[in-house]
Amino acid sequence: MSDTGAAAAQADAAWKPAYNPWLIAVSVTLAAFMEILDTTIVNVALPHIAGSLSASSDEATWALTSYLVANGIVLTISGWLGDLFGRKRYFIICIAMFTVCSFLCGIADSLTQLIIFRLAQGFFGGGLQPNQQSIILDTFPPAKRSAAFGVTAIATVVAPVLGPTLGGYITDQASWRWIFFLNIPVGMLAVFLVSILVEDPPWEKNKKRRGIDYIGLSLITLGLGALQIMMDRGEDEGWFESSFIWVMALIAFLGILGAIGWLLTAAKPIVNLAVFKDRNFAAGCILIGAMGAILYASAVIIPQFAQQTLQYTATWAGLVLSPGGVAVIVLIPMVGKLMTVVQTRYVIGIGFMIMGGALLFSSTITPNVDFRTLVMMRTAQTAGLAFLFVPISTVAYMTLPRRLNGDGAALFSMFRNVFGSIGISLSTAQITQRSQVHQTYLSQWASPFHAPYQALIATYEQALRSMGRVGVAAHDVAVGRVYQVFRTQVTVLAYSDVFYYCAIVAFIVAPFCLFLSPKIGGARGGAH
Hints:
The structure is a single chain. By secondary structure, the protein is mainly α. The chain is 77% helix and 0% strand. The two termini are 26 Å apart.
């Protein structure tokens, strides 16, 4: 090794952050928390946005789709963008512009403006999660990363849980515009803290800048953009009954397949797929993708069930999720301690088993389920999440070469978000499909020739007559009430099925933890 190379290696080994690493972790996590919160906080406000901007509910969903498309694309290439601009500079640009775009979204006076500003917001927001993880990886030594990822988990797991609660409360009490204005003080504080506390380590400053891989960039944009549009719009368009969805599916397939082929053979690819040669990282991406799908799917369908079936307000539907966020915060330190005495791969397996059991419990929902039971169901699910994010993140990066941290963080975040979008789309599609199946099955019993059906109508009819309704009017209203009960039963059975399917996925994924290295964590001396 030359004298210059030896000196550089010595400088790298001797480098330590100038400020307390925990202050740095909290500062960068604040920015990521703001961005992740924004992906779910808008969901509950879409009907209000549609009414305020004189748009249909279907048109308003493009405010969510545009964000997800831009976000998904940039997540993948954020490592390259960090190399291009310098990681700290790029991170600050993303925070500042995300904040500006949030302000523009809040003052938008037409749906077209809102969609454009949301597209820009997603573009700059896509760089926050990967850079947050990359900065934490470089700030903390491997032995302390599991504790640092505990802070990261607050953004990744708690933000999607808190989003619907906060969004519902703001929408009910003020205006949907304050959902976006809320980001302004948070973003300004994050820019201030990051600009002071964060610094690029020597190996980041000395990293050779990659050129612009136009072909790789184009293929990733086409493939992931079309995939996000297909998954987000599929349910509204009738999935593969729509020619638009077929076109999006074809573009997604060709774009992603072409991107993989190009990135594996290009001399200077925009994303280095060599990260997947690391067994722990590859298995970690599969596991975090499964966790993301279950996390986002369950975070959407529970408040949806509470609002549409149980007639909860947006605020109360969000409050169903909040205790689960508290449970995660309480459990994460305990899981960190557990990782020092139990092999990390077994901790992950325990997490998926807890998650599967909690989802089986959730599949027992009934039409008269009360608030307390719903809270217990959601809290049990998030208890499983506490055993997943920190261990999976710790294992995924443990043996990854430091030079690949940027690309690794980008792809790791991409897996979580893309599979999260897929989980949301598949769960909502299954609710519709299973509702139709159960309606077809149960309708054979809603017949004048079925005695219990007739007895139920008679009970309602008698109650209505006691309240002053007479003759045909009482009978018609009674039939209508029975039909409402019928529809509720159908919907509850559909949600029960979706929870059951999610449980099966959790149980199937659990054995994948065995592909992780057995030498990470546990009584052999902790993570190393």
